Amino acid sequence: MRLVLVGPPGAGKGTQAVRIAERYGIPAISTGDIFRANVKGETELGKKAQEFMNAGLLVPDEVTNAMVRDRLAQDDVAPGFLLDGYPRNPGQAAELEAMLEDLEATLDVVLEITADLDEVTARLLKRAEIEGRADDTEDVIRERLKVYEESTAPVAAFYAEHGLLVKVDGMGAVDEVTDRIVTALDAR
Ligand code: ADP
User: In this predicted structure, what is the pLDDT of residue 12?
Assistant: First the structure.
């Protein structure tokens, strides 16, 4: 199974990605996690990404696309993969198409986790207290939500046109959302 997860910041993508990946025996690849690990490790990639992340902006496409291309070339993606946080704009979606063509593979489903704006803002502010992520301040959250609406929402529309999009309501308890996702995926 090759799956892409989209949804606004705070919709619960990271939490659900781990659960879905485990259930279907595929690696969960989170571009946000990879960037954060590189920032922490002070690598070249981390240095390139950090200022954009802290401003709530997308890391430039040439940096992100190259990173994902490398990741998808690794052996563990043979049984499939779950991409969390990529593609995040139409250019990245086109680049992913090209990568998949080179791998002679296609996407099976794009799962959109939906949640209303008040709920995601509240969740991110709560996470800020617990995890202290540099991009979970109120101003940066607002910027990330704006970037989502402007850049990432069109990606969901693109996949909807191709008949790949499945929407799942991300409101409610974590387990309930997982059940909805599994039901929706198994129905395909
Ligand atoms: P969230 O979805 O909660 O905003 P992520 O952990 O997915 O957070 O991403 C955090 C940050 O990492 C983003 O705001 C962005 O700066 C960077 N990032 C992650 N994925 C991408 C991507 N596909 N393209 C560009 N930047 C990305």
Answer: 93
Expressed as residue numbers, the domain containing 24 is 2-180
How many of the other CB atoms lie within 10 Å of CB of 146?
12
- Dihedral (CA of 35, 41, 47, 50) sign: positive
**9-20 pLDDT, tens digit each:** 999 999 999 999
Write the CATH number for 62: 3.40.50.300
Quote the CA–CA distance of 32 and 24 in Å, as a whole number.
Answer: 21
Distance (Å) of CA 141 to CA 23, 57, 109: 31, 10, 28
Please identify which of the residues 23, 69, 133, 167 carries the catalytic annotation. Answer: 133
Region 46-65: mean pLDDT is 97
Q: Ligand 1: which residues within 6 Å by Cβ?
A: 9, 31-32, 35, 52-53, 56-59, 64, 85-86, 88, 92, 135, 144
- Counted residue by residue, the chain has a size of 188
Residue 186 lies in a domain: no
pLDDT at 164: 97
pLDDT the model gives residue 104: 94
Buried b (16+ CB within 10 A) or exposed e, 22-60: eebebebbbbbebbbebbeeeeebbebbbebbeebbbbe
